[in-house]
Design a protein that fits this description.
six-stranded mixed beta sheet, Rossmann fold, 2 domains, 321 residues, alpha/beta, 14 helices, four-stranded parallel beta sheet, 14% strand
């Protein structure tokens, strides 16, 4: 399995191409890692850059990827920065705003089925046919190591953390976070109740297919957890929990009302666990939440005329407005 050394190597490799994203303190014991301020609006460029830059050479056909939207934007952005051709396969659930941004970076966008796994199958077939390098969104060591640089920055900025909450789809960000922290910090995985590939795999003892649905299905809607992230989860994960769609939407709205952060559903999922009480910190426990994506129509988070009412969250995991 990859470890902290691989994450440090990735950090050196991609340093010139990614942003160091900030943290925001909500109170004395809770911080947000604002990875939605990364290029393209999510953590995904970290893994995509590390994967591509790790290759001694790339085929003339360029790179190809499948994505619910965020990874596709990252791959398109990487291609535009490095002068490569890129083709991105997206599922029908990929929001128009994400498709438009992928195309805006110069990549060719292809709708490849109803959900992410359909798009991945079409993408894999295209890679075989064209010879392009396939940049997998999560089940590859280089991608996970790149994503793990989020945790490296967090550790440098907040070295006294006890717990980190991470949203999970296919497991790339979780795998990278676990590779960096090991068991030095408790890592808690958070998934939507209606798309819980990791939770089901841990229960079964191996990756299994699950149903994919819900408000965060475009970014956290993998039908099966990646094998490589799953191995890291078996070795290092502290806890796996799920949150409802209603809790995710409430977290989006709270982030906007309290600190003017516009997070997409997948980006707010980890915070939903804290806000809604699915994860309840012990007194004095120092917790970080990775807000991993912000690619969403702002009007869906803060409708016209919506007011910031302030107030506080309920439950032991309270955070200030």
């Amino acid at each position: 399995m990859i470890d902290r050394t691989d994450v440090h190597d990735a950090a050196r490799r991609i340093a010139a191409h990614v942003r160091r994203t900030p943290t925001l303190a909500l109170d004395g014991s809770t911080v947000l890692k604002l990875e939605l301020t990364q290029h393209t609006g999510s953590f995904k460029p970290r893994g995509a850059f590390n994967d591509v830059l790790s290759r001694a050479s790339l085929p003339a056909a360029g790179i190809v990827a499948a994505s619910g939207g965020n990874h596709g934007q990252a791959v398109a952005y990487v291609a535009s920065c490095l002068g490569l051709n890129a083709e991105v396969f997206v599922p029908e659930v990929c929001p128009p705003v994400k498709r438009e941004r992928i195309a805006g970076f110069g990549a060719t966008v292809v709708v490849g089925g109803a959900i992410y796994d359909d798009a991945q199958a079409a993408c894999t077939a295209r890679a075989v046919q064209s010879g392009a390098h396939l940049v997998h969104p999560f089940d590859r060591d280089e991608v996970m190591a790149g994503a793990g640089t989020v945790a490296l920055e967090l550790a440098e900025d907040r070295p006294d953390l006890d717990t980190v909450l991470v949203a999970v789809g296919g497991g790339g960000l979780l795998g990278g976070t676990l590779a960096f922290y090991g068991r030095d910090v408790r890592v808690v995985a958070v998934e939507p109740e209606r798309s819980q590939a990791l939770h089901a795999a841990l229960h079964a003892g191996h990756p299994v297919e699950v149903g994919v649905d819900g408000v965060a299905s475009d970014s956290l809607g993998a039908r099966q957890i990646g094998q490589r992230p799953f191995e890291l989860a078996q070795a290092h994960l502290h806890r796996s929990i799920t949150v409802s769609d209603a809790a995710i939407v409430a977290a989006q709205q709270h982030l906007w009302a309290s600190v003017r952060i516009v997070a997409e559903p997948g980006g707010a999922a980890a915070f939903a666990a804290l806000l809604g009480g699915a994860y309840r910190p012990e007194p004095g426990e120092r917790v970080a939440v990775i807000v991993c994506g912000g690619n969403v129509d702002p009007a869906s988070v803060a409708p016209p005329g919506a007011a910031s009412t302030g107030g506080t969250a309920t439950g032991r995991g309270t955070v200030p407005a």
